[in-house]
Amino acid sequence: MITHPRTEELAESVRLWIDEIRPTLDPRNAFLARVAANAMATIYRELTQGPAAEARAVEGMREVLGSDGDFAALNAELCERIRSGELGVETPGLLPMLAAMARDQIAIDQPSYRPEGTPPPAA
């Protein structure tokens, strides 16, 4: 079985290569290369952080919904129950669970985003 390179290693290697050649490109292609490098960085974070974030989301949704299932099924049920008004801000655990899910997604999509009052990560 081939174990290397792993998918996340490939994504990171492509991102690094794009960043390496970007200074040699004309302005338009340098911009497009930056977009591509950012996309590769997001793919890397999705591969490395996504599974744990999804597992936390599944656990949180199971607790709030009192249901079992995979992420897609629980998310569909959560959305439907919120839309129908069955779940709302008064539902125990709902808002903290949604906030945790949002923080996990932001950490993948926009890791440099810091909500007001949030200290920067330790170096």
What would you say this structure looks like, in words?
- The protein has helices at residues 7-21, 27-65, 71-83, 94-109.
- It has 123 residues and is mainly α.
- It has one domain.
- The chain is elongated and about 55 Å long.
- The two termini are 37 Å apart.
- The mean pLDDT is 93.
Low-confidence stretches: none
Mean pLDDT: 93
Number of discrete domains = 1
| Residue share in helix | 55-70%
Number of strand elements: 0
How far do the termini sit from each other?
37 Å
**Biggest beta sheet attributes:** none
Gyration radius (Cα, Å) is: 19 Å
Helix count, DSSP H or I runs of 4 or more residues: 4
Layout of helices and strands, plus pairs?
Layout: H1 7-21, H2 27-65, H3 71-83, H4 94-109
Helix pairs in contact: 1-2, 2-3, 2-4
Brief descriptors of the model:
single chain, mainly alpha, 123 residues
Brief sketch in words of this structure:
The chain is mainly α.
